[in-house]
Amino acid sequence: MFETNNRLVVLYGSQTFTAQEIAERVWRTTKVLGFRGPVQAMDDYPIAQLIKEEFAIFVCATAGQGDEPDNMKRFWKFLLKRSLPSNSLLKLKFGVLALGDSSFMKFNYVGKKMHKRLIQLGATPLLNVG
Ligand SMILES: Cc1cc2nc3c(=O)[nH]c(=O)nc-3n(C[C@H](O)[C@H](O)[C@H](O)COP(=O)(O)O)c2cc1C
Fold this sequence. Notes:
The protein is 26% helix and 18% strand. By secondary structure, the chain is of the alpha/beta class. Keywords: Flavoprotein.
């Protein structure tokens, strides 16, 4: 059914565990579907490996006033580096699930920005931001 080695990583940025729980739920579903790969906080994932990945799901909460959660700060800083070439993530196909609250001015800011930034770096979205 899958042409690749079935690897799919599920990465989350979560301040108060909601995104983490959802990421773990998504990950369990990916297992049932036959994918393998880790579920991790973005800052626990070795980011240099991202250029090799073919499939990834990002579950991103927005904290503070449009801020990234603490456990994705390093990952985020790296991803936003201007020096990264626009073809860095050509292999990657991804989906972003954004968690937020529409009563905040910067509703789902991190998830939306993640989606845009991954595209800027050459990755292909498999679906719109969820
Ligand atoms: C202190 C605080 C600040 C928040 N700031 C935002 C925000 O700027 N934009 C937004 O869309 N949601 C915001 N939210 C809502 C969270 O993103 C939402 O509750 C999310 O489900 C939390 O996920 P987490 O438990 O994984 O951190 C905020 C929530 C809290 C408690």
